[in-house]
What does this fold into?
Amino acid sequence: MPKDNNRYTLTRWQKIWSSTLYGLCRCVAILPRFVRYYILQEFIYFILHYVIRYRRRVVMDNLRNAFPEKDEKEIRGIAKRFDNYLAEQMINTISLAGITSKQRMRLLHFPDVEYYVKTTEHSDTVLLAAHHGCWEYLSTVACYDKKHKLLSVYHPLSNSALDDVFKRLRRCENTELVPRDDCLLHFMRHRGKEQKISLGLIADQNPFRYHGAHWITFFNQDTIFAQGGEQIAMKFKLPVWFGYMSRVRRGEYKLCVELLYDGKEEVAPNVITERYVHRLEAVIRECPELWLWSHRRWKCKRTI
It folds into this structure.
């Protein structure tokens, strides 16, 4: 697997800090599954839920606004299950330090892989996902689909050492990590080569408010969504897929995909993004605790 040249721009102390953190992840990753998911996860859940009450007000406000039809007992139940899922997600991420690409395929089942590969084999494609389920497993798609190189778009962290740790955890066969601000230029430079490209985007990020933003009703609230995936798809006539997860058991998920846009249909601006948003909301409603309720998704307010 190619080395990440960005790692060598770190200072000596940043490299030491990064290597130490990654080494700790490796130590946890080699623990037996039972220890990681039924002892360590429960301990982290206890700390998150009962001790530090991690972003409790944000989580509760988001849930109350999203589900006005649910009573307080139901809301608290979702919040409790969310904290347990968040602890599991931490274990999932740390465990990436000790598993191979083949082992990843046992953790993310992809029953639609033959349909997906056959449908996309002759073109580049855009894969839109979300912070639902274990999003850190999404690069596993590249292990199943050898005909496409996955450009996994990520948002760099302000802490360089921690950012380096996450890049090392996210490395995967047939995958290239691309910073969010460079994804369009990187895609244009590499498209048209022998291996097709799949552009993977976590599209439920909270973008900055921008002039002319298109607001979409998402969980009863006016919401801005990033338009990058749609814009690239429309510009290059690429199919757009929606990838979403369901939980099999602790640490194991199933990935399903749906075609949102075939690259040929004549659609108005924002239609592709709206299709993504409506399907995402439906998926979250089926299993709300698997979405990242702790981030401030609705901090931008619409002004009339």
